[in-house]
Please model this.
Amino acid sequence: MINEKRLIKLTQKVLQINSENPPGREFALSKFIENDMRSLNLAVKTYTFAKVRPNVVAILKGKNKKNASKKAILITPHFDTVPAGKGWKFNPFGGDIINGRIYGRGASDDKGNLACAMEVMRSLVEDKVELNYDVIFAATVDEETGSQFGIIPLIEKGILKPEAALVLDSDEFRSIIAQKGLMHGRVQVFGKKSHGAYNWRGINSIEICSKIIQDFKALKFKHKKHKYLHSPTMNIGTITGGDKVNMVADFCEFSFDFRFMPDMDSKKCIKKFKSVIANHAKKSKLIIDDLQMPYEISSKHNLVKIYQETCKKKRRPTTLMGSEGATVITFFQKKKIPAIATGYGSSKTAHTNDEYAHVKKLYDGTRVLEQFLKDFDAR
Model:
């Protein structure tokens, strides 16, 4: 049975252990999670892809020995957080509870969800629940800076091979079933230096970049209207160039953040960007630093439907929605693993000062999660 007092004490404990990323100081919390899971006599392993940043994987074995691992379901929160920063009213590592809210960096993103998952694993063991399939709990590092040392290698190396995945990294019981693709890139333009008073003798890379930026912002892309997502977006994030006010700049670089739709081809988008750049610059370079594919799963998929039904049963209905930003659900599609993201934090508090989660929502969410695992078993 889910124990509310134990859940809240656990949430306070994980909030009190600093796991800011950057710089990537997840080791202390990783050891706490590992020890907690080992105390349940689960099959526990850690996987490290960057120094002192272990991911923790614990498995509650199913009773169907032949098919339990093939039918496994994954529940996976991350436990790194963005830096706390300054300007907090409450201690970002205090876990203070005020008026039904628990405060701390990561309360909603993602330590509240972490505690929910840990309490569910403990409750299942204590109640001696026997499911037909394995329940895999994977607490991961590095989500806040790209997951290169967390969920990505765990999936790509075949360490995690579930039949389905529930990513615990959302809030308000929402179910993310679609998200945009992400492209982070840099455009470098090379010009020619000259004295500022004789600017016609040079080639000003800053001015060229400004024209490219205007055309980037004006680009239109063919795409289908999506029920859960807004149209593609282009954001210019940084720009740098030039040496001195009275010199013609011979170098300029700007970075962009492009979010695209599930029916769009990333290669065609890059081709379009290159065409715009070539229209203005004789010497240039386009560098793609990060590319994540868009993702969507049918609202009629069994995973989605069962979770909806469980939430309704527990009087915490879920809302199907899309994510304009990136969650790790996209990384499962390479291995053809259906995934959705959900969670029980409080909206608009993640990454903010005085981040909090509602105690009641965490408790209700934990009950939903445990019931979902039982309902998934009965499918």
Remarks:
- The chain has two domains: 4-179+294-377, 181-292.
- The helical segments are 4-16, 27-38, 111-126, 151-156, 205-218, 266-280, 302-313, 359-377.
- Residues 359-377 form the longest helix (19 residues).
